[in-house]
Amino acid sequence: MSVGFTRRSARTELLSARALPQQKVIAITDKLAFEPNAYKVITTWLSEQYGAKTCPTEVSSLNESSKYLLLILSKIERKFEPSKIFGYIAQCKKNATIDHVFVWIVEQKLQEAFLRPYIEHMSDSVITFEDRQHLSLLVKKITGAVTNKYYEFDPLKDSIAIVETKRTPPTKPSTASVELDPPPNPATLGTFKIDLKDEEVAAKNALTLPFEFYKTLPEGGKILYHPDAEDDLDEEDPDDDLLI
């Protein structure tokens, strides 16, 4: 089964314009191993929206306070417990001097699988690089509404331009319909006749089999024994004729 994408629009726009404005905590779920270039990617997004020479501060000790922060989760997890990481992100959300907190997530590198869904829950928007050409963008609005859209992009360009697409459900391999033959008639499988006419059924039912003759005798099912001349019917020693 495979997931398909079809373009919904020819309009091209910057990913940063969709993901950054009014969104404080932005989670990036990386399925393409972009993590070594995380700092460069975030710097490009900030420069596109806020001017050149705008760079993030990479978080290493969970006490950084800057306008733009970059937290690479696989590095931080090795140094701090999950509760400390969650607490730091929660503090950043309340800090008015911080505009954006970018949390870069590579799930394969995490020791605790629950970190990704928990941080995505805390985030205001979630960017997921699905494959080499497609990404999804989930945005939580102030009103409480949530949008989740899919986009096509070119990973070879420094500036990520996106075109909205529609994700189609997984396709299942088609199976040709097989017509089942009706069950065969047993009467046609041999050269002899197995069907009976009405008169043959009546004759069959009227037939008395040898083992059923006892029904017609006065004695019923009693066993009749007729001794031979050599039989010894002495009740006191019934086995005397056996010479033992």
Average predicted confidence as pLDDT: 82
In the CATH scheme, the class of the largest domain would be Alpha Beta
In CATH, the architecture of the largest domain is 3-Layer(aba) Sandwich
Classification by helices and strands:
alpha/beta
**Poorly predicted regions:** none
Total strand count, please? 9
Under CATH, the topology of the largest domain can be stated as Rossmann fold
Strand order of the largest sheet: 1-9-8-7-6-2-5-4-3
Tertiary shape? elongated
Write down the Rg: 43 Å
Strand content: 25-35%
Supply the CATH superfamily name of the largest domain. Answer: P-loop containing nucleotide triphosphate hydrolases
State the domain count. Answer: 2
Distance between the termini: 86 Å
Helix content: 10-25%
In words, what does this structure look like?
With 244 residues, this protein is an alpha/beta fold. It has two domains: 12-165, P-loop containing nucleotide triphosphate hydrolases (Rossmann fold), CATH 3.40.50.300; 190-226, no CATH class. 21% of the residues lie in helices and 26% in strands. The protein has helices at residues 15-19, 38-50, 73-76, 82-94, 115-122, 198-206; strands at 2-14, 25-30, 57-58, 68-72, 100-105, 125-129, 134-140, 146-153, 161-171. The protein has a nine-stranded mixed beta sheet with strand order 1-9-8-7-6-2-5-4-3, with helices on both faces. A hairpin with a 7-residue loop joins strand 8 and strand 9 (161-171). Helix 4 packs parallel to helix 5. The radius of gyration is 43 Å and the shape is elongated.
